[in-house]
Amino acid sequence: MKLRSKAAALLCSRWPRCCWRCCPCALAALSPQRLPHAPRPPRSATPRRSLRAGRHRAPSPWPAREFEALAPASAPPSGPPGRCVRLEKLARRPGEPRSFQAVLPPELWIHLAVVACGNRLEETLVMLKSAVLFSHRKIQFHIFTEDSLKPEFDKQLRQWPDSYTKKFEHRIYPITFSVGNPQEWKKLFKPCAAQRLFLPVILKDVDSLLYVDTDVLFLRPVDDIWKLLRLFNSTQLAAMAPEHEIPKIGWYSRFARHPFYGSAGVNSGVMLMNLTRIRSTQFKNSMIPTGLAWEDMLYPLYQKYKNAITWGDQDLLNIIFYFNPECLYVFPCQWNYRPDHCMYGSNCREAEHEGVSVLHGNRGVYHDDKQPTFKALYEAIRDFPFQDNLFQSMYYPLQLKFLETVHTLCGRIPQVFLKQIEKTMKRAYEKHVIIHVGPNQMH
């Protein structure tokens, strides 16, 4: 009895506020394995996170389907007392799959984009694997790559187990540049990296997008960084992390020969974008007195600064947001954690408190021995068998590998790298045991 009461209290504590009045309905949604004396109603197919997201709506003068799609959930409940209307609308019918993803409308999916050229196939697949391992909402992958890599991407992604392939869909695009000289853009920095600048132009039907470099790993659900869209104010249309936490030793503050955002610049390896706002905005610039649309601004901006930029498209983004600082939301370094944050001593306070959320192994550290902590995380996710236990096959071996990295400054703070991934695995384990096994079967 105590166990059933505990399970009921846990559910009520996590249920959306809008359903507190109809908590009996929420309790009835528990399976008979957990509440043996309760009748079996249709199980809700709606994720708690999606409903909770409905209580927030960012102020916006622009149309933004990512937010508007969630807006109806904020309406007051209607119907007879004790009835959860929104849950009932998406309730599972007999014979339907239990996964909420089967009924989750496409406008609530997460959109994740990556650009991969040259020898970036494996690295990109490991990044995508880290995204699906922990995600809750369904993800639409937008993969921009060379023609020679398209068949292999498609083949590899289709070979993943069904339990993971149902969590995402993928589209593969050619490398295209709508303005200027394509060869110039392609060779601007790393192969094809400038493609990210053209995502608002190409993905016209996508409202919001998370762009990441191929050398990024998610150590917690992608859903969590996607929620940062709700923190945008009425003028913000993109989010990035600072390039450095200490301006006096940062690259931009010491060496840049062009304007850059803030006191240390921003890093574009993890970039959250409201594409609807980007397409609707006239951007201030240093070329003409009036504003320019995003697509119209890119090539003239490149022509003006091409002899001054070092980091290609990232430098161009810094120049854009230097002139339009009100358009950028700056998120903490835990969402774009790079070797610079620990190789000279720990300087990302958010990661020290919360753990690394998104790991960015730039400068090729996954593939050499300069930063063995980063390499250990990459190899742990790469080599993890999809169907194995996360703790046994990833977390515990990772702890052992970290013991071999203590000779580096990054290796001396293993808790920074392990805190979030441990939380994520615990949540996944609890969800499996409590929801799928049932507390009455736990010993």
UniProtKB/TrEMBL annotation:
<dbReference type="GO" id="GO:0016020">
    <property type="term" value="C:membrane"/>
</dbReference>
<protein>
    <recommendedName>
        <fullName>UDP-D-xylose:beta-D-glucoside alpha-1,3-D-xylosyltransferase</fullName>
        <ecNumber>2.4.2.42</ecNumber>
    </recommendedName>
</protein>
<dbReference type="Pfam" id="PF01501">
    <property type="entry name" value="Glyco_transf_8"/>
</dbReference>
<keyword id="KW-0808">Transferase</keyword>
<keyword id="KW-0735">Signal-anchor</keyword>
<keyword id="KW-0325">Glycoprotein</keyword>
<dbReference type="InterPro" id="IPR051993">
    <property type="entry name" value="Glycosyltransferase_8"/>
</dbReference>
<feature type="compositionally biased region" description="Basic residues">
    <location>
        <begin position="49"/>
        <end position="58"/>
    </location>
</feature>
<feature type="region of interest" description="Disordered">
    <location>
        <begin position="36"/>
        <end position="61"/>
    </location>
</feature>
<comment type="function">
    <text>Glycosyltransferase which elongates the O-linked glucose attached to EGF-like repeats in the extracellular domain of Notch proteins by catalyzing the addition of xylose.</text>
</comment>
<keyword id="KW-1133">Transmembrane helix</keyword>
<dbReference type="InterPro" id="IPR002495">
    <property type="entry name" value="Glyco_trans_8"/>
</dbReference>
<keyword id="KW-0812">Transmembrane</keyword>
<keyword id="KW-0328">Glycosyltransferase</keyword>
<dbReference type="GO" id="GO:0140563">
    <property type="term" value="F:UDP-D-xylose:beta-D-glucoside alpha-1,3-D-xylosyltransferase activity"/>
</dbReference>
<dbReference type="InterPro" id="IPR029044">
    <property type="entry name" value="Nucleotide-diphossugar_trans"/>
</dbReference>
<comment type="similarity">
    <text>Belongs to the glycosyltransferase 8 family.</text>
</comment>
<keyword id="KW-0472">Membrane</keyword>
<dbReference type="GO" id="GO:0016266">
    <property type="term" value="P:protein O-linked glycosylation via N-acetyl-galactosamine"/>
</dbReference>
